[in-house]
Design goal:
single chain; about 475 residues; 17 helices
Length: about 475
């Protein structure tokens, strides 16, 4: 009967010191290959940490880290008091990271969820995010390196209920630049602007209340309001903001609790308020006693002359919502609310009940990006690139038979209708998907039937010739 190999006899790895590959990675990769090839058999015990370190003249901490990585991968198992052993064949392995979504159905649920996961369609003309190369990846990487070097105590535990105070101070300074003076207890952070809107809905409304929104509107907001069982009424959007005459008529008739509106680079139309429109909306809110929720996530990409409702109103009847997802990275999911002091306290209570605090690590990352001195230049470059792309896309849409809602003002979106076609927007979107093109039909955003087919185009993804060739075939 063959003598069982002692653990230290079975392993003599060829580790290279003068290479860019860390010793830990070399140990992990070599052991994984030995296990896969049968050089290390199921159930075989590995050398102790001390033996392995002595044999290969490396630090014990390197061996511990390598062994633990292999345990995490399911290739090794630990037996208390006995050591590390090769896992049995057929032992559970890490799940695959690939995801094969079902054949999509073009509806609002697809736009809200499946579109984020499905990578099969190459031309994402209807999506709601920017390509990674357009975002502030350099600033984010620098911030990540600073966070890693920070003391461990700053990276564990819950954050502050209102959010990381230095970040809220930066937000207060940003708002002061628009002539809106706020104190730190008037600002709270949120898990993106989407959670900020949800906190406002849950705190300020009850079932059956009437709320107004822009029409067309941000499709996630429409879904949230309907899930809250609210009566949702649309105020028509115009190239200069909203139809203030209609707002006045509707407010007299329905007495809304809240009006959700975007003052700058509205999603999906890309339009911004004029100063006259802003003043009329605030006057209507004062006359009829409703709150205005200013969804202002594109403020950094707008023009210096674009009015801020919260600044004009002084947060008397305006609740301000901002975000950093569009200019830094959506993966950080960092938004914020600025409002009256007592309302902020109520919103924080709702936030803590639903989700406790935000991730302070993410808040510190955003703070670092905003203070390292590169972000302003990044935003200026991004704004110029989007304005240029929007002008090009609008011109090509017009050439192809689509009519843009307004002239290029910057931001991510162009909103256009197709003339001379008997197909509905959803039928067109389904045909486009079969050609490798994702479109966002207008009825995802409209509360009322839009008549002619409308589409939202993300200008960062809408310069492929195949997109315009498709529309010409209609």
């Amino acid at each position: 009967m063959a003598r069982a190999r002692a653990p230290h006899e079975a392993l003599q790895l060829d580790l290279q010191r003068n290479t860019a590959v860390r010793l830990v990675e070399q140990v992990v990769n070599t052991l994984a290959q030995l296990i896969a090839s049968g050089g290390l058999r199921s159930g075989e015990r590995l050398p102790s940490v001390r033996q392995f370190a002595q044999t290969h003249s490396i630090g014990a901490s390197t061996v511990v880290e390598a062994y633990e990585q292999l345990v995490a991968r399911g290739l090794l198992v630990v037996r208390r008091g006995a050591g590390f052993f090769v896992a049995a064949k057929g032992a559970p392995t890490a799940p695959s990271l690939s995801f094969a979504p079902p054949e999509p159905v073009i509806d609002s649920a697809w736009l809200l969820s499946e579109m984020f996961a499905d990578e099969r369609v190459p031309i994402k003309a209807g999506c709601g995010w920017l390509p990674g190369k357009w975002l502030d990846d350099d600033g984010l990487h620098q911030a990540e390196r600073r966070i890693i070097r920070a003391p461990g105590a700053q990276q564990v535990g819950y954050g502050h209920p209102y959010g990381y105070a230095p970040l809220r101070q930066i937000i207060a300074q940003f708002l002061a630049g628009w002539s809106l003076e706020v104190s730190l207890d008037q600002i709270l952070t949120s898990h993106g602007a989407t959670q900020a809107l949800d906190l406002i809905i849950r705190t300020m409304t009850k079932r059956g209340d009437t709320v107004f929104i822009d029409d067309p509107a941000y499709c996630n907001l429409v879904a949230m309001l309907r899930m809250a069982d609210l009566q949702v009424i649309g105020v028509p959007r115009t190239p200069t903001g909203v139809d203030t005459d209609q707002l006045e008529i509707l407010a007299r008739t329905h007495q809304p609790k809240l009006f959700f509106t975007s003052s700058v680079l509205h999603n999906p139309t890309g339009t911004s308020y004029t100063p006259a429109c802003a003043m009329r909306v605030l006057q209507s809110a004062e006359r009829h006693g409703f709150w205005v929720v200013e969804d202002d996530i594109f403020r950094e990409l707008g023009q210096p002359t674009d009015p801020m409702l919260a600044a004009l109103d002084g947060l008397h009847r305006v609740i301000y919502v901002g975000s950093y997802s569009k200019t830094i990275a959506p993966s950080l999911r960092l938004g914020y609310i600025a409002c009256q002091r007592e309302l902020a306290r109520q919103l924080v209570h709702t936030k803590m009940v639903l989700s406790l605090t935000n991730s302070e690590i993410n808040e510190r990352l955003v703070h670092s990006v905003l203070t390292e001195g590169h972000h302003r230049r990044h935003v200026d470059g991004l704004s110029a690139a989007l304005l240029s792309a929007q002008a090009r896309v609008n011109a090509r849409l017009h050439e192809t038979g689509l009519i843009p809602f307004t002239t290029a003002r910057g931001g991510m979106f162009s909103w256009a209708r197709l003339e001379g076609c008997d197909l509905s927007a959803r039928e067109i979107a389904d045909r486009a998907r079969q050609k490798g093109i994702w479109l966002a039909p207008g009825d995802f955003f409209h509360l009322s039937h839009p008549g002619q087919p409308w589409f939202r185009f993300n200008v960062a993804y809408s310069e492929a010739s195949e997109l315009y060739d498709f529309f010409r075939t209609l």
